[in-house]
Amino acid sequence: MKRTDSIVIKTPAQLDGCRRAGEKAADVLRILCGAVRPGMTTKALDDFARDTMEALGCRSADFGYYGYPGQTCISVNEAVIHGIPKDSVVIRDGDLVSIDITVSFEGFVGDNARTVIVGEGTPEKRAFVEWTEEALRAGIAAARAGNRVGDISHAVETVADRHKLGIVREYVGHGCGVDMHEGPEIPNYGAPHRGPVLREGMVICIEPMLTLGSRRIKTLKDGWTVVTADGSLACHSEQMLAITASGPAEILTPR
Ligand code: MF3
Ligand code: CO
Ligand code: CO
Fold first, then answer.
1. Ligand 1 atom with minimal separation from the 81 CA
2. 156-169: pLDDT as tens digits
C-alpha cells in the first residue's frame, strides 16, 4: 500500500481536528463491537457501520481508498487485516472478529481497531486477545517525545515474543490525521533507540498484528483480505495517539 512518507507535525488546530476525528472513529468502533452477534454476516456489520457513521456525521475513509470496496475492514479468525466485508462470511460463536474503523470528519482522519471474541471463546483465545492489548499498551507507553520509533517497535515486539506470538511484518503502524497514512512507518518489531525521533505534535497509529502461529501471510484473491499463511488465528488492535511535550501520549481514540 502506498503511503505518504512525510511526517506531519500538527498545529494545535490540526491536533484538535485529529482529536475530533479520533473520537468519531472510537465511537463507531465501540458501537460496532457491541453489535457483533453470531449469525451476522460481515457485510451486515459493514452496512450497520455505514448507517452509524451517517448518524454520527462522519464517513468512511476506507471506502474507495485505492479502490477498497468496504466501509470498514472486518477480519475474522485467520484474517489479519483488510478483511473485505462479505455476504459469504458469517460470524459464529467463538470467532475472533477484528474490526478496523477509519473515518473522515471535518477534514481529518481517525483510525482505530480492536479484536473481539464472539461469546466466551476459549481460554487460549481470551489470552491471545489480552496479549495483543498488552503489546499495544507497551507500544503506547514508549510513545513519548524524545524516544524513537524503534522504542515503540521494540516494546511491542518484546511483549509478542514473550507470549511466542507471530508478528506480521509486511504491514505497520503509521502517522495519521491529515491523511490516513502519513510518516513515519511504525513496525511492530525492531531495535530500540533507532528510527525517527518522536516529537510533540506527531499523531501516530500503533497497531500490532499478531498470530498464534507463523508470521507469514498471504492475500486472498479478493485483492485485499490478508490471512495467515498457516491458517492460524490472528489479532489486531490499533489506537491513534498524539505525542505530547512530556509525559504519556494523548489517546485520540478512547475506548
Ligand atoms: N485502517 C487501516 C489502517 O489501520 C487502513 C484501511 S485500508 C483500507 O491503516 F483500504 F480499508 F482503506
Ligand atoms: Co486502522
Ligand atoms: Co492504521
1. 2
2. 999 999 999 999 99
